[in-house]
Amino acid sequence: MLDLKGYGHFLIEGTGMTVLVAVVSMVGALVLGLLGAAAKLSPHWAIREIGRAYTTIIRGVPDLVLLLLVFYGGTVMVQWIACWFGRREPIDINAFITGSLVLGFIYGAYATEVFRGAFLAVPKGQLEAAMACGMSRRVRFQRIQLPQVWRFALPGLGNVWLLLLKATAIISVVGLEELARKADMMTRNVKAPFTVYGLTILIFLTLTIISEFFLKTAERRAAAGVRRS
């Protein structure tokens, strides 16, 4: 029988924070993914290079290193700016905001490639037919491109979400009390690391299974009416 010595609520609180961070980060990743894909598919050379630099650099830098750079380097920068304006009091950067922004920025690079491939998968003949019918660019995007892009992108975005969900654990190093951090705090009190971390793994697996269920449901709905070969 599990004896968590009254610290079981730590896991519940940590799970809630983990899900919140993951959702906020994923929203940011989707926005950056769409912007990044638009940049990489742009007819303008300079914009394409910006998009290419974003995906290349971000995917080449370890998540933890970037998080530490933004959190601690950002704290120093903000403090320096505050001192320049005459404020001497210590300023701390919010770990939740920083962690969510960094994860969204990182996984936005992966979402960029997913969206880019999805846009390229839309048959050009359909867009040409829409142009021949006199549809504006906005109407073509809303009625033809976007519905199909979501269908093509959902499997890849699902993978991005699952990777991001696990990556929330790195935010524990900057003090945010998400699931991994709460498990570490709980272990120091319960003195049962195998039990606590085993439960933590089961929670992550449960979140993954639930996510896969909703992702499969979303994929089926997106593919409704599409003839399968």
Structure summary:
The chain is mainly alpha-helical and 229 residues long.
Characterization of this structure:
The protein has 229 residues and is mostly helical. It has a domain at 19-176: MetI-like (MetI-like fold, Orthogonal Bundle). The chain is 79% helix and 0% strand. It has helices at residues 8-40, 45-60, 63-84, 95-121, 124-132, 137-167, 179-190, 193-222. The longest helix is centred in the first third of the chain and has 33 residues, at 8-40. The radius of gyration is 22 Å and the shape is flat. The chain starts with 7 loop residues before the first helix and ends in a 7-residue tail after the last helix. The mean pLDDT is 88.
Indicate the structural class: mainly alpha
Strand content: under 5%
- First CA to last CA: what distance? 52 Å
CATH architecture group name of the domain at 19-176: Orthogonal Bundle
Biggest sheet, open or closed, and with what strands and sense? none
Mean pLDDT: 88
* Low-pLDDT sequence parts: none
* CATH secondary-structure class of the domain at 19-176: Mainly Alpha
CATH superfamily of the domain at 19-176: MetI-like
The number of helices is: 8
Question: What's the CATH topology label of the domain at 19-176?
Answer: MetI-like fold
From the alpha-carbon coordinates, what is the Rg to the nearest angstrom? 22 Å
| Strand/helix succession | HHHHHHHH
Query: Helical proportion?
Result: over 70%
Estimate the global geometry from the Cα principal axes.
flat
Q: What is the β-strand count?
A: 0
